[in-house]
Each structure stands twice: as structure tokens, then as C-alpha cells.
Amino acid sequence: MPGDFKVTPWEVSGEVDYDRLVRDFGTSPIDDEILERFRQYTGDLHFMLRRKIFFSHRDLGWILDRYAAGENFFLYTGRGPSGHTHLGHLIPWMFTKHLQEKFGADLYFQMTDDEKFFHDPVLSQVETLGFSYENALDVIALGFDPAKTFIFSDIEYIKTLYKIAIEVAKHVTYSTAKAVFGFDNSINIGMIFFPALQAAPSFLPSVLKKKNIPCLIPAAIDQDNYWRGIARDVAPKLGFYKPAQIHSKFMPGLGKGGKMSASQPETAIFTTDDPEVAEKKIRNSFTGGRDTIAEQKKFGANPDICPIYHYYEFMLEQDDKKLKTIYEDCKGGRLMCGDDKMHLISKLKPFLKEHQRKREEARKMIDKFMVKD
Ligand code: TYM
How do residues 85-131 score in pLDDT, each as one tens digit? Predict the structure, then answer.
């Protein structure tokens, strides 16, 4: 049915109506007022804010109030390591890096290898833990500060996390977990407990430093169930601040509609893809183009539904003027999809090569970032 869509931590489908999510999830839109406040601390706004790729938040004003009053916040985000990182995952992480730089914030980065072990019918513990380390290379490659960044695997850091997770779990009934996550009777009991583990890092630095520290979580909006339904509800019961959030939209996959998702590898570009393979994927991508060049010249194409356009918007063209030109030339029938794809490829391949170089460099630094107990 048109207008039907689903956004959960494990499934995003249909055409997402982001305004409706703001209403349904009870968040606040990123508006000019909050952007103006942001600008006071960061100078020029990050392109993901200017373009409303980060479009929604909870308590961001409060985080800035605390910051203005001299109380630093920490950042918390993560990854479910079920395979290699794709470009979509980099969106919240690049923005998190910007926040770390501008606010001098510590980052706690959770690798939920336990979640992916529970969730995936075939992945072994050894495999998901292995992907925690592989995905950590992508995080490190983005240039996070080793002195301020703590990456941990749930499997390896469980002694510390468990003490917090059981405090959380005690306040969450099975009926709440079912209502928040839509669990049915076929779910394994690991998944039922798991939300307590994803909530736990919202309070981790407060526990480690024995004082209440504000938390800001940058992530795409698919992770919101954890904060809306669990972490924010339990926080005051445990004497902690409620974690604040800033939510991004989804970078689309290469097919018609839908987010970039590791579960559809043929329509995702992985950071580990050989640049030639990535080029082939782009060449085969769906676009917002017309059936024939003549029609496209006459009627123009539709950038709004085109993954190629959105890859510029989300990542590969940070100059607003150039982005606007691409948009208008596409709509006006002056830009043909073949040329547009070649131009994107000419930006994507160097990006991938450079990321892969930094990713290899990161192998030498990984011990500086990973925390264990
Ligand atoms: P995961 O591995 O599904 O996703 C990692 C991060 O990437 C975001 N994301 C996307 N962002 C933009 N476009 C896309 N196409 C796209 N696909 C995924 C997700 O929102 C997420 O921010 N359980 C979590 C791991 C986790 C976590 C966290 C995430 C643990 N603690 C705290 C965010 C914040 C997971 O499986 O994420």
C-alpha cells in the first residue's frame, strides 16, 4: 500500500515518511532555532545538518544548555557487526567524528556482536566478534581521537556492561519489550535481554566516573526503539540523565527504494569493496531517469528518487552549490544518467581507495581504541 513503511532496528522497508516518524516517535524536528544554537559552538554548520540529513532529535537543546553551563557530554553510538561496513553506516559515524572534534567529547562505541549472534541464524560468535574488529577499523579510519574514543565488543567487555545491563533489565517487563520491539513467541531469549545491553552504554561513563554525565547518541532513526522505549524510561529510575539523541535519515541502496542494507549486498557499497566492484555496482544502479535519452532531455529526470543523487547529497558532494547544480541539471533534462554515474564514480573511487588505505593504517592502532575487561 502506498504510504506504508516500517522502521525498526532490524527492518526498514517502504518509503519512509520522516515527518511522520517525528510525530509517531515523539521526537523534535531539527529546526532553524536549534541549528542556530549549534552554529554558536561549531561555526559553519556541518553539511549533514544544513541538508537535514540529521533531521530529528530529543533533548539536543538540553545537551547544549549543559554544555554552555560547563558540563561536557559524551557521545555514544555503535554497530551490529554482522558483516563488513557499508557507506550508510559511515553517515552517523562521520557526523559523530564532527561532534567529537567540535565539542571535545569522549566517544563510547559499542559493537553488539552478541546481538548479531542472537539475531543471525548462521553467524557464529567467532565470526561476529571478528567483524567487531573489522568494523572498528572503519571507525578508526574516520580519524577519531584515540585519547577520547573507547570501542568495545559486548562479548569482550561484558563484565563491565553486565552490571549496568542487569540494572536496566530489572526495570523492563516482558510486555514492554514485546510492545517496543514487536517480539513474538518465536524470538530467542537472548534477543529479549539484549535491549538492556544496548541501553547500558548510555550510562557507562557515568558509572565509570561515578558522576552523572549527559549522553548524546547520534544514529539513524532505526535505533530509536532502544532509547524511546527502554533507556530514557529507565534512566531516572537508576538516577541517570535521560540520553539525548540526534537522528539521521537513511542513505538509500542502489535499488529502487529502501535503505542501504548489508542484508542486500548487491545494492550496498561496502567500504571493503574493490573500487572496480563499486564502479560496477554504480553502473548497474537504479536511477530516477527516463526510459530514453530523448524523453529525459524533454521531461527531465527525478533526483528525489535517485540513489546516485542521494550519494552526492549524503556524502560525496559537500559543496552545496555543486549539489544544487546536479539537482537542477537532472530535473531540467540537461544531465543524463550515464554521465551522472561516471561523475559519481570519479568521486567514489578515490574516496574508497583513501578509506581503505586509512583502514589498513588503523590495524596498527586498534589496541589504542579497543577496551576490554
Ligand atoms: P547497525 O549495525 O544496523 O548500524 C550501525 C549504524 O548505522 C546506521 N545505519 C544507517 N545510517 C544511514 N543510512 C543507512 N542506510 C544506515 N544503515 C544503518 C544505524 O542507525 C546505526 O547508527 N544495534 C545497533 C548497534 C548499536 C548502536 C548503538 C547504534 C549499538 N549501540 C548506539 C547506534 C547507537 C546496530 O545493529 O546498528
Answer: 999 999 999 999 999 999 999 999 999 999 999 999 999 999 999 99
pLDDT, tens digit, for every residue of 228-259? 999 999 999 999 999 999 999 999 999 998 89
Topology of domain 265-361 in CATH is: Tyrosyl-Transfer RNA Synthetase (1.10.240)
Query: Which CATH number applies to 5-249: 3.20.10.10, 2.60.40.10, 3.40.50.300, 3.40.50.620?
Result: 3.40.50.620
Ligand 1 centroid from CA 219, angstroms: 6
The ligand 1 atom nearest the CA atom of 221: 20
Report the separation in Å between the CA atom of 89 and the middle of ligand 1, taken as the mean of its atom positions. Answer: 6
pLDDT per position as a tens digit, 170-186: 999 999 999 999 999 99
Of 111, 73, 29, the C-alpha closest to 244 is 73
So where are the chain's domains? 5-249, 265-361
Q: Is the pTM of this model over 0.85?
A: yes
User: In the structure grid, which three cell numbers stand for residue 151, read together?
Assistant: 570501542
